[in-house]
Design goal:
mainly alpha; 4 helices
């Protein structure tokens, strides 16, 4: 549709129907009362905020945990090898019993 034709039709319609000078009863008071009252808190908004904060905390904890040095010490190596040796010895003992 041609925009200039549409604009002409809208202006013509607006000229045929001028705005009324009367305002509905207590219109100003209703509007001002609605503006002054605080909006009702939404339960969904509270839940979504809490979940996003929880997600942010989880990301922060994961990042901190990934920065920790995870290097085995010599004691860990010794205990691992001793544990493997003990398990092999215990399996050999079980085979000898049968």
């Amino acid at each position: 549709m041609n925009l200039s034709e549409l604009q002409k039709k809208l202006f013509a319609s607006a000229r045929r129907n001028p705005p009324q000078s009367q305002v509905p009863y207590a219109f100003e008071k209703r509007i001002m009362a609605r503006l002054s009252s605080p909006p009702k808190p939404s339960e969904g908004l509270a839940w979504s905020r809490a979940l996003w904060y929880g997600a942010a905390v989880c990301v922060a904890v994961a990042m901190l945990a990934s920065m920790l040095p995870v290097q085995p010490t010599e004691e860990d190596d010794d205990s691992f090898s001793e544990g493997v040796e003990q398990s092999m010895v215990s399996v050999d003992d079980l085979e000898g019993l049968q």
